Amino acid sequence: MWELERRGFVCSGDFTPEVVLDYPERVRALHEEFVLAGSDVVEAFTYYAHEGKLKSIGRESDFEALNLSALAMAREIATQSGKLMAGNICNTTTFDPGQPGNVARTKEMFRVQIDWAVRGGADYIIAETFNELAEAKLALEAIKQFGNDLPSVVTLAPYSREVTLDDVPLPEALRQLELAGADVVGLNCGRGPETMLPLLREARTLCKVGQSL
């Protein structure tokens, strides 16, 4: 997302991945660049490719085509290069744990993308950039329920505070995700190594599963 934004193909602010449909050759080229740089995984560019975000830019009708195209592209390049392929879900920006109807809708958003990732040949599912532990847990629950036993990687986004938006210390939040069944837990986005690594070191004292940056 960030690299395509720097190149002018993702709009700052919305950060929706319509580039997958509008300029697929750019997404394909970036996947290939990451592979050439040594990445072991090709991650489908379905970040913010859920109905809620796409509706905000008037492209909800592209929901299915965008996700399926992104998954097919990632699977093809991963197979050609002998790499793993990861499906992706992320924070929704509309999650409200105080509204049961909202929680159910959020889980359904996750379910649809997870189902497509399974059918698209993903080797595992990444759920990333969550600010609230409750939403991260809901995403993990959806992966475990609908992910056809694929491994799960769940990461939180540590911004300026040392706690989640629902006031759980980040290392403890990662521990709770481990206890809930995540195969890998970690942090992504929002910080550089100097301020992120100390939190991960603390998390390592609490967690036994793999940690991911």
**CA-atom Rg in angstroms:** 16 Å
Q: How is the quaternary structure best described?
A: single chain
In CATH, what is the class? Alpha Beta
Count of separate DSSP helical elements: 9
CATH superfamily: Homocysteine-binding-like domain
Low-confidence stretches: none
The CA-CA distance between the termini, in Å, is 16 Å
Q: How helix-rich are the residues, as a percent range?
A: 40-55%
Largest sheet: 6 strands, parallel
Keywords: Methyltransferase, Transferase
GO molecular function, one term: methyltransferase activity
Pfam families: S-methyl_trans
Pathway: Amino-acid biosynthesis; L-methionine biosynthesis via de novo pathway
Overview of this protein structure:
By secondary structure, the chain is an alpha/beta fold. The chain has a single domain, classed as TIM Barrel, CATH 3.20.20. The chain has a 6-stranded parallel beta sheet. Helix content is 49%, strand content 14%. It has 9 helices and 6 strands. The protein is globular and about 40 Å long. The mean pLDDT is 94. The longest helix is centred in the middle third of the chain and has 20 residues, at 100-119.
Concise synopsis of the structure shown:
InterPro entries: HCY_dom (IPR003726), HCY_dom_sf (IPR036589). The protein is α/β, with parallel strands linked by helices and 213 residues long. 49% of the residues lie in helices and 14% in strands.
Summary tags:
213 residues, alpha/beta, TIM Barrel, 6 strands, 49% helix, globular, Betaine--homocysteine S-methyltransferase 1-like, HCY_dom_sf, transferase, methyltransferase
